[in-house]
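SEQUENCE-TO-STRUCTURE ENTRY
===========================
What this section holds: a protein sequence and its matching fold, both as plain text.
Question of interest: how does this chain fold, as expressed in backbone structure tokens?
***
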Amino acid sequence: MVPAHDESLVLPDCLAALARAVRRVDGPVDVVIVLDDCDEATAMAARAGVAAHGDTRWRVRHIDSRTVGAARAAGFAHAAWDDRTWFATTDADSRVGDDWLTTHLALAAAGADVVAGLVEPDDRQHWSTTMTELYEAHYRRVDGHGHVHGANLGFRASVYHRIGGFRSMALDEDVDLVSRASLSGAVVARTALAPVLTSVRESGRTAGGFAGFMRDLRQLADVTDGTDDTDVIAEQRTA
């Protein structure tokens, strides 16, 4: 599922990438786009995406919350599911790889109840050397990493419902879900496989998340000469 708020410029690429990933799956896939208090341009982009890539299994839902946790919850609220069902979510400013869903499903088949994947910034062209060094120092691209991103997150439907799903949170709804799943005994696969390209914009719907992480790095890069003065950035801010 994909939550969106006024994202008309990026949503078409998001949905095109998602359509390619869906075609790789051997079986039915439902796609839900949740438009959270969106402008008409975003609504038009969503409808165009469904028309271009979708079928009766692609749907658009409208809510008026401006809360990303509520938007993600709305996407799964009416989904039919059984013990075999896998839920996955990304973001409107992100582009999944062709192997995104198949990788999630392979990890689920190997025993994972939750898949917490990585993201990759979509444009580093104007990064300074210091900015690049800070990013590489604080972002771990290895299995077992500590990052959580709503742009690359999946879970068994049974686990999702058992722990109560996404809470209506404006920040860290993804971290909260993974934390509760882990505490419930769910197996969490923190994988470096199938990272998702995501926007490097430093303005976002929340004060934290990946946008907040990038703002922290940018501010630090502006004042540092590359010395190790970076412990002010909490790893969990990458969520």
User: Anything to note?
Assistant: The chain has eight helices and ten strands. Helices lie at 11-23, 40-53, 68-77, 100-109, 129-138, 157-162, 173-183, 209-223. The longest helix spans residues 209-223. The beta strands are 2-4, 31-36, 58-63, 86-89, 94-95, 114-116, 119-121, 153-156, 188-190, 196-198.
